[in-house]
Amino acid sequence: MSTRVRAPAFEAGFSGLRSSGPSLWLRWVGANAAGELAGLGVAALVGWSLLAAPGEDTLLSHILLALALIAVGTFEGAVVGVAQWAVLRAQFPALGRMAWVEATALGALVAWGSGCFRAHSWAPRPRARGHPRPR
Fold this sequence. Notes:
mainly alpha
């Protein structure tokens, strides 16, 4: 015996998804592609410019780079969230813009944060001048 929980508000949001023009799925994919292109484009430019900047290779520089990438990754999530919300708002009018954008940005913050942590935890550590690289 299975118990199915009914969520009328949720199910009501899916009524009438087939409308004239491109399907919700195609608009969703297009919005995601455009949002990622813009958001990741900014992230790539910022990351490249920070990596190309002259400076000492220190633990502090690695931490600051990771924090900058996490911040720009959060911005990327917000851009994607706005693009997604623009598609979803017609089908789900109760969906708040700020709630959706904040949730998407938070997801990107977690993703970029864990990615930067993992990349930094496996990266070679900066070494003091004059000390040979371990073999």
